[in-house]
Design a protein that fits this description.
5 strands; 5 helices; Rossmann fold; five-stranded parallel β-sheet; 121 residues; alpha/beta
Length: 121
Amino acid sequence: MRALVVDDSKTVRMVLGKSLREIGLDVLEAGDGQEAVNLLYRGESVDLMLVDWNMPVMNGYELVCAVRANILLNDVRIMMVTTESSMAQVEKAMAAGADEYLMKPFTKDLLLEKLTLLGIP
């Protein structure tokens, strides 16, 4: 199983990537939504995306919309991992097609709990 971590913070990508690798996932990284789209459209296959909301170039909400607009990517599970904590933002992300929502800061246990809800690993 392969995950794509999309966050403009290298530290967050490192922390999430480490946790995902520890449970046996293969991990790709992107620094913004456009970089993630480029990876996907280049043919990189992923099963899961962990996406920050606030990023330059293309934000996480725009990325979720772009992924959900592509029928070939319908099976990709998307978890927003962000500091955006208002219920309106959560509802907006879920309506756009996010499958789960994890607020920063988070613990490894909470991340694993959310992954379990998505059927991973």
